């Protein structure tokens, strides 16, 4: 499987990037190919401007050059992984802008849908699992990403994986998080097969 890994964090030395690297190592171990897209490094503009607003009168809408480039990149892959810190129980603004602009009408929904087999959302949460599940935050996030975005765009095999307590933890815990990311890569295909069988 060829996986596009979209990562959103401003610092290369962040845990988000370490998790990305270990996840990709796991993918490689399982025989998958991966391309990492660092949204900050490519200078992605997250602001949806008039030229990329959805035009529901068109079945095949043309977009700005930056968006056409990202659409072409997505078309080359069988699956997608998003790696990001969870901020205010949501995607960072950079990644939200990527979703707004790239997963657009006539490409990801409308007259066409995404062709990808599956999507994984690896969310780094600074808080505990108990805090994420307080007031059903975790369930709300999963519904937003799996149903509101992925399924709406035609990808029914979508899952959110939370990495908990990513702030001010002991070194042993950070290593556990990195091992968890590695295992997510190794089991990327089989985890969805198990999910489908339930």
Automatic annotation (TrEMBL):
Any Pfam family: Flavodoxin_2
Residue ranges of the TM segments: none
Gene Ontology cellular component list: cytosol
Domain called Flavodoxin-like fold: residue spans: 1-180
Record SUPFAM superfamilies: Flavoproteins
Keywords attached to this entry: Oxidoreductase
GO molecular function annotation: NAD(P)H dehydrogenase (quinone) activity
Database matches in InterPro entries: Flavodoxin_fold, Flavoprotein-like_sf, NAD(P)H_dehydrogenase_qn
Family from the record: Belongs to the NAD(P)H dehydrogenase (quinone) family.
Listed NCBIfam families: PRK09739.1 (NF007280)
This protein's name: Putative NADPH-quinone reductase (Modulator of drug activity B)
Organism placement in taxonomy: Bacteria, Bacillati, Bacillota, Bacilli, Bacillales
């Amino acid at each position: 499987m060829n996986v596009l890994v979209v990562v959103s964090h401003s610092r290369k030395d962040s845990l988000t990037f370490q998790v990305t690297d270990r996840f990709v190592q796991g993918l490689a171990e399982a025989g998958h190919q991966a391309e990492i897209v660092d949204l900050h490094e490519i200078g992605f503009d997250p602001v949806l401007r008039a030229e990329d607003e959805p035009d529901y009168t068109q079945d095949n809408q043309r977009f700005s050059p930056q968006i056409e480039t990202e659409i072409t990149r997505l078309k080359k892959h069988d699956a997608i992984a998003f790696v990001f810190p969870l901020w205010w129980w949501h995607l960072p603004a950079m990644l939200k802008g990527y979703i707004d602009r790239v997963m657009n009408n006539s490409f990801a929904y409308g007259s066409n849908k995404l062709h990808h087999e599956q999507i994984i959302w690896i969310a780094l949460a600074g808080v505990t699992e108990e805090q994420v599940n307080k007031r059903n935050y975790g369930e709300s996030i999963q519904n937003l990403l799996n149903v509101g975005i992925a399924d709406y765009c035609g990808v029914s095999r979508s899952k959110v994986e939370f990495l908990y307590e990513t702030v001010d933890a002991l070194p042993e815990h950070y290593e556990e998080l990195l091992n968890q990311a590695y295992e997510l890569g190794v089991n990327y295909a089989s985890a969805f097969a198990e999910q489908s069988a339930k």
